[in-house]
Amino acid sequence: MGRGHLGGWKLIMWLLRGVIFCLCCVVFSPENVAATDQSLEDFLAGVEAQAAQVHALRCSFIQEKHLAVFAQPVIFNGVLNLVRPDNLRWELVAPVPSVFILKGQKGIRCTDQQPPQYFDLKDDPVMQMVASQLWTWLDGKYGQLNQSYQLAMAGSSSLSIIPKDDKVVAEFIESINIVFDPVSKQPQQVEIFEPGGDLTRIVFHGYQLDHLPDEALFARCYRGE
Amino acid sequence: MRHFSPGVIAVNRSALLRWVCACLFVLVGIILALPLQVNDDAMDLLPGEAVRGDLEILMRLGLVDRVFLTLSVNPEHYPSSAAAQAALKGCTEKVGEALAAESSFSEVLYRFPNGYEWELFRQIEPHLASLLTSRDLSEFGQGLALPALENTLHNDFVLLNTPAGLAIKRQIRSDPLGLTPKILKKMAHLKSEYAMTVSDGYFVSKDGLHTLVMAQSVMRLTDSANAGQVFNCLRTIMGSALQPGMQWRVIGSLPHTLANAESIQHDLKILLPVATILLLILIWVVLRDWFALSILGVPFLAAPMAIAIMGMAYGRVSALALGFGIVLLGIAVDFAVHIYVALSREPGTDQEILRRLVRPVTLATLTTAGVFVVLFFSQVVSHRQMAALALSGVCLAVMFSWLLIPTLVKKKKIISPPRLITPSFTTRLSPVRKIIVLGLWLGLIVAGINAWPALQYNGDLRVLDAPNQNVIEDERYFRQTWQQQGEQVFVVAAGASLAEALDNNYVVYSELQRAGVEEFSSLAPLLPGPVAQQQNMTAWRQFWAEQGESFVHDFQQAAAKAGFSEIAFRPFFEKLDRPPVAMSPERLMAGPLKGFFSSMIRLPEQQGVYRDKHQTLVLTTVKSAAEIMPILLKLDADNPAITVLASQKWRSQVENLLRQDIATLSGAAAVLVFLVSLVAFRRMRAVIAVLAPVVSALAAMALFSLATSGELNMMHVLMGIMVIGLSVDYGVFVVCSISEKVSTTTFLAVSMCAASSLIGFGVLAFARHPALHSLGVTVLCGIGAAWPTALLVSPIIISSFSNKGAE
After folding, report:
1. Each residue of A50-74: pLDDT tens digit?
2. Which H helix or E strand runs over A43?
3. At the N or C end, where does chain B have fewer CB atoms within 10 A?
4. pLDDT category, B227, cuts 50, 70, 90?
């Protein structure tokens, strides 16, 4: 009887293994994997197509920094102005005003306590890398990220991005989650997870697409400077 | 059945014996000459150990065999400028990888690796204590008061909240007060003299449309065969790597070698047939004997043994010395011509004719040998090697001519040469005409003497360089693209070890800093020698000890006020607590900029054939300027381990040494020839008559040089030696012919020799290549003046003496 009982369990286990195997075969069949890739590709193509139609944009954002180096989470309000291909103004309005501008190969950094610091990307390898990373994200060409990052859909309008083998990027970024507006395909929220547990969350709102800003915004930090 | 008289058989046996001995001699010469090592160093043309030593260092640094490639893209072939730049970077990658995989190249530098900035920061940051000087710390200390700290940390806080914050968080945590930027600022001195930026690791021009690739050839690029091979390799790589709308240009010694080789080949392709045809016409018109051609080759049988003697004396010889030595051996052809013409055209038996020729041939050989003996005391290595070859060669060639030509000559009918080239022409001139001839000759000498001091000696090897229009255009393009202006001075610090060389290199850096020199490229700021690093670390410990607890307190207060947590700057304080660590060359050389560093450091095993097993070299390049040279030359003079390599320095040194050499050797040769002539003829007039063609040749060469460039170069000197050797012989033969009436065909033979030299070398005056042109012009002027002097002036001088003697 005991033998018969064990034999029954074995049969059940064999059946269960068979079912799991079949399920795996269905889930991971080439068709299904291709379908997942296809939806990601379609999604990225949609985002890129939308981004390509936008020459300039302005939006507000709230930036939260949950960093171990800060005594408490730091929340900033700011405004982003962007004119493709290479004009960017990242302005923190409150609580501490500061401006970060990129215009072609030139840049300006200002705080409320220091005169503007001008830099040239050609002579500043650190800022060159920062600019390169920023434009990778801001250009909306997510399809190009495939080489350096592992991309995956996380929901219908969310993208999860994990650095592949690039040790330099992996040192700063563990993963990035981007939530897109389902209609406009513009990023609504970006979460950057750093190794060690630090998190930066930026929530964008109030998009004004193809709003051409004053040229001076990319030439100086504040009026009169 | 033919019957031979015993006399004929004896003569034939003697001839056979002579030829067998000659062939054996040649065979032994070939065997002994085979192990000879030949190099193609232009350095052997330079005088003085110091100058050659300097150039040797240049070779050891590998600078001579480096190629600089500019890859360019035309944006019109691409949808946008950004696409063109991206395509250019992609092709640069392919070119760089292909060059690195090619065995013809070593040390290919075309980009820095991805993330090199952070890697470099990581390398430098732990060694700040050994890299920051006491002066840096003193400046830094001024920003450590509480208000300044608050301001700095507030800025750090704001920066962390900008888009750049993510990337520089780690840097701010370990270096919140900006010590590392002080080192990075000094890295400006790591940049070469080229106006380039580093984009994605590639070396890109300001407009983004050009990239720079540097590669070290493993083969000597001063050799035209090597240069051709390397160029073909480059062409293949570029052909497969570059896309439409892209082009490449190369500068360095490679295109110069190719252009020179092409120019010489082009000249010789035209001029060699012209010279050959003219020589054949000359021989036929004058001698009417094609067999004379083979007789004229007899002296060159001496070449193998002469080369073997040179090889035994020097071991490794210069290709230039070998080539020009053989040319100098051509002087012996004149002896063969004299013997041939006399034997074939003069009355009497061979023995009688040879007996008459013994004295002029011996005297001419002695005077020519005297010129070459003097060359042994030259400061130029190749001159000494040439002297060994030419001296032994001429002596052996005379011996061969003397022994073999009588076995070959067939008697021709006695000819009566044109009246102009007979002794009677001058001896029968009217006194007025003789005075006019002597007056013209003296005028030439006086003008030559006046011209001589006005001549400048140009010791720059580049005067013999013949870059074509493409090379000039490519160099102009390179200067324009990379904004390279002016010449560079190389300052080389040597040491028995890398550490010692780096210490000496830091001495150079400190001196440049002290003198306020801005435009230089040195790795000393990132890699000081052990002595300097030790001093820096002592200063670091002392500096932080002086700051004490108050600094920690103020810093923490300012950090808290800015919004930082307590743990934010733990890495910074941990670093201050750690004992300082010196930056090791091995660490830096293994880092992201290793390609750049290895181009500035040469370990003994990287120095090729010139390597000194115990010397490491470290290079600093300085933009040349009049006010900087005295500083560098003082550094060179004060420190035996530091050598300044500058064309201005070489030029003046070479000029002084060669001017000194020319004066000393010419004087010595003049004295020697004068003494030989005096001993032989025992009358001043005869001596003057012998020397008259030489003096004319030198005067004509000086006047021509003054009228054209006002300069003498190395080629003038080399061929000047040959012209002197030939002219002396003209004088000796003419004086013997007239004063002792030993030969009736001397004037014909002298004219034949002069005409053949003028044709053979004179056609080179029409060459495009400056070296061949100088060579041709020197012979044309020198022989052009010596020949008429020998035919007209020497007889007038000697005939007057003979008349007196007769009286």
Report:
1. 777 888 888 999 999 999 999 999 9
2. helix A30-53
3. N
4. confident
Q: Is A108 helix (H, G, I), strand (E, B) or coil?
A: strand
> Which residue among A67, A68, A129 places its CB closest to the CB of B167?
A129
Q: Of A202-206, B55-59, B212-216, B674-678, where does mean pLDDT reach its minimum?
A: B55-59
The count of domains in chain A is 1
* B305 and B294 within one domain: yes
Q: What is the per-residue pLDDT for B2?
A: 43
Range of B434's domain? 417-454+683-807
Residues of B with CB under 8 A from a CB of A: 82, 114-118, 151, 154-155, 157-173, 197-200, 206, 560, 563-568
The CATH number of the domain holding residue B36 is 1.20.1640.10
* Closest-approach residue (CA) in chain A for B151: A113
Distance CA B157, CA B164 (A): 12
On chain B, the residues whose CB falls within 8 A of the CB of A124 are none
What is the average pLDDT across B683-705? Answer: 89
ipTM of this predicted structure: 0.79
Whether residues B367 and B400 share a domain: the answer is yes
Residues B298 and B325 in one domain: yes
Domains contained in chain B, number: 2
How far is it, in rounded angstroms, from Cα B753 to Cα B331?
Answer: 9
Name, of A174-183, B531-540, B616-625, the range with top average pLDDT.
Answer: B531-540
The pairing of strands A87-94 and A74-83 is antiparallel
Q: Which chain B residue lies closest to A88 (C-alpha atoms)?
A: B163
Is residue A20 in a domain?
no
Nearest residue on chain B to A123, alpha-carbon basis: B197
Q: Is residue B379 domain-shared with residue B295, that is, in the same domain? A: yes
**What pLDDT, on the 0 to 100 scale, is given for residue B210?**
93
A8 found inside a domain: no
**A2 lies in some domain:** no
B609 within some domain: no
- Give how far A152 is from chain B: nearest CA, Å: 23
Joined together, the tokens standing for residue B749 give 């033979």
Which residue of B lies nearest to A99 if distances are taken between CA atoms? B162
Instruction: Report DSSP state, residue B791.
Output: I
B378 and B434 in one domain?
no
Q: Report CA B116 to chain centroid distance, whole Å.
A: 38
**Nearest-CB residue to B166 (from A109, A112, A200):** A200
| pLDDT, tens digit, 9 for 90 and up, residues B426-475 | 667 778 888 888 899 999 999 999 988 888 777 666 666 778 888 889 98
Which residues of chain B have a CB within 8 Å of the CB of A134?
Answer: 163
pLDDT band at B194 (very low <50, low <70, confident <90, very high): low
Interface mutation vs chain B, best among A69, A100, A128, A199, most B CBs within 10 Å: A69
In angstroms, the separation between the Cα of residue A56 and the nearest Cα of chain B is 19
Give dist(CA B280, CA B58) in Å, integer.
Answer: 46
Measured between beta carbons, the chain B residues lying within 8 angstroms of A193 are: none
* CB-CB neighbors (< 8 A) of B172 in chain A: 69
Q: Please state the rounded mean pLDDT for residues B78-83.
A: 85
Domain ranges, residue A79 = 38-218
A71–chain B nearest CA distance, Å: 4
Between CA B563 and CA B255 the distance in angstroms is 62
Instruction: Flag if A172 and B151 touch (Cβ within 8 Å).
Output: no
pLDDT at B503: 93
Chains A and B form CB pairs within 8 A to the count of 107
pLDDT per residue over B70-80, tens digit each?
999 998 988 88
Of B334, B331, B346, B325, the closest CA to residue B295 belongs to B334
* pLDDT for residue B598: 77
Is B483 among the domain residues?
no
Residue B806 and residue B687 share a domain:
yes
Whether A81 maps to a domain, the answer reads yes
pLDDT band at B504 (very low <50, low <70, confident <90, very high): very high
Last residue within a domain, chosen from B391, B415, B439: B415
* Interface-testing mutation among B149, B151, B160, B166, with chain A (most A C-beta atoms within 10 A): B166
Instruction: Please say which residue of B367, B399, B415 terminates a domain.
Output: B415
Say if residue B349 is in the same domain as residue B386.
yes
Structure tokens at B153: 């940390």
Q: Look up the CATH number of the domain holding residue A46.
A: 2.50.20.10
Q: Are residues B383 and B443 in the same domain?
A: no
The alpha carbon of residue B435 and the mean position of all alpha carbons in its chain are separated, in whole angstroms, by: 48
Edge-to-edge strand list for the sheet holding A98-103: A117-120, A106-111, A98-103, A87-94, A74-83, A56-66, A199-209, A187-193, A175-180, A158-163, A149-153
Q: Which residue of A has its CA nearest to B172?
A: A69
pLDDT tens for B327-363 read 777 777 888 888 888 888 777 788 888 888 888 888 8
